[in-house]
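Homework help board

Subject: predicted structure for assignment chain

Our instructor gave us this sequence and asked us to write out the predicted structure in token form, then describe one feature. I got the tokens but I'm not sure how to describe them. Can anyone check?
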Amino acid sequence: IEYAYTGNSNNVKLVIKNLLGATLLTKSLDANGNKVKVDISEYNAGIYFYSIEADGRPLVTKKLLVK
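My token output:
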């Protein structure tokens, strides 16, 4: 997953949720980075949502399709 963060927070996270809103994964991100690898092999086929959050506030939310 590629991301861009230009703020000054040190608390940047990737959060993956299912369609019901249950959090499946929370992973800390490097505020100066731009990519993160996530193993989704254990997820069932379907639609998920991932968000990049800073200080608990979502900056961007996108759809993740697992086949």
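Reply (TA_rk): Your tokens look well-formed. For the description, you could write something like this. The mean pLDDT is 91. That's the kind of observation they're looking for.
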